[in-house]
Amino acid sequence: MSRYTRFLPDRFTLFLVITVLIASVLPAHGKGIAAFTWITNIGIALLFFLHGARLSREAIIAGFTHWRLHLTIFSATFIMFPVLGVALKPVLQPLVTPELYTGILFLCCLPATVQSAIAFTSMARGNVPAAVCSASASSLLGIFLTPLLVGTVVAASASAPISFDAVGKIMLQLLLPFVLGQFMRRWIGAWVYHRKALLKFVDQGSILLVVYTAFSEAVNEGLWHDTPVPALLGLVLACAVLLALALLGCVALGRAFKFSLEDRITLLFGGSKKSLASGIPMAQVIFAGQAVGAIVLPLMLFHQIQLMVCAVLAARYAKRPH
């Protein structure tokens, strides 16, 4: 049975599906949307504050010594992915609706995950310190680079109205709480570090709030009526193709730069993953006033596919001789 459980969605993914179903059947309206938006903003600010208080500056500084590996991972995250999203437009765009293709381009511009990239690298016996450094730095760089990439890539390829003011809004809503958390780290860092359950609750809870609010607005605007079943099936195929090419690209980069096997594992799991935790809050800011539910749907699907595929890859790497 354990052989097949790794293919099953995790509990948080099930919560995401349940949240989407609730929003589809019982969407928030009017003042309810406004109330959920305020609560969500507070939850996201608290999330980034706690991440700032928990993240060790010493670990980041120490990890940057392996700069060739980090630059390669950042290139895969912020260059290779956007290039793939744009280059595959003739193939991907006919499979999905315009809003879903915008969402595909958006996920291509996002930073890498933190927790799962480190967890899979550790499971596969890769370079864990480098994974911690690159994943953490990717999240920070994403606060600046993602809105700039979205403003360039998405606006040009999907004809979506994007404002560069989103950079300032994201810095205010995400970076400022993070910096405050770093400032408070000397007083509350140890307390936060030993309360991982609290961070996980705020992390997952804020995402679920954003998903419910976003999908409520999208359902009110006719998301499921305007998204045909063939487009949803096409989205599954598009996400699978995108992940496969990203994994192959990371393997090719690792071999081209002659990294050790441990470093290639870190590159594979750090350069091919996209952050749901950062992506959904950013989408709410960058695409304010648009159908955010349709835009984050590709990210939610890609997130689950990458977890299942990387779990299998990590398990295979873990079986190699010591």
From TrEMBL:
Q: What is this protein called?
A: Bile acid:sodium symporter
State a GO cellular component annotated for this protein: plasma membrane
Bilayer-crossing regions: 12-29, 35-55, 67-88, 100-120, 140-160, 166-185, 197-215, 235-254, 275-295, 301-318
Q: Which Gene3D superfamilies match?
A: 1.20.1530.20
Answer whether the UniProt record assigns the keyword Transmembrane helix to this protein.
yes
Going by the UniProt record, its keywords in alphabetical order are: Membrane, Transmembrane, Transmembrane helix
Superkingdom is Bacteria
Q: Which organism is it from?
A: Bordetella petrii (strain ATCC BAA-461 / DSM 12804 / CCUG 43448 / CIP 107267 / Se-1111R)
Q: Which InterPro entries does its entry note?
A: Na+/solute_symporter_sf (IPR038770), Put_Na-Bile_cotransptr (IPR016833)
